[in-house]
Structure prediction request, 160 residues.
Amino acid sequence: MPLAGSIRDESPAEANRAGRAGRAGRLRRPSEFAAVLAAPRAQGLRASRHWLSMTAAWFPSEQATVRFGATVGKRNARRAVDRNLVKRVLREAARGAAPQLEAECARRALRLDVSFRLKSSRDRAVEGPRASVTEWRRALREEADALLARLARHLAQPGA
Prediction:
């Protein structure tokens, strides 16, 4: 039995007002992630930085929605604490970019699915010793924001 006030008890509009994406705003099933990865290049964007890679796919839809998902494997984040930190940072970045992406999707009548993947471990720092948690978190957020800004610019282009 779900707890009172659980996100499952809220409608998507109520969940968004509370700053949460709700179930409708997330990629949850492996088939949903696979559909994003299998999208043709004309209907998608793939971008990557040092820590993160992003794959986005858009599809014509009467109901404009934006859904986000994250894949954080044990190979790149051995501790559950680190995997949860990465997912939390990606959710924060997605919440910040969602209004702009939703507006662009509504303008073009699209459904947008965005999948993030942690591609490098904190142990494999670019230079020097292992990055501190604070530095790593800041770098992840900067990369996620940059990738989402690139996606927003790509969608805003007339030929995209």
Observations:
- The CA atoms of residues 46 and 55 lie 5 Å apart.
- The mean pLDDT is 85.
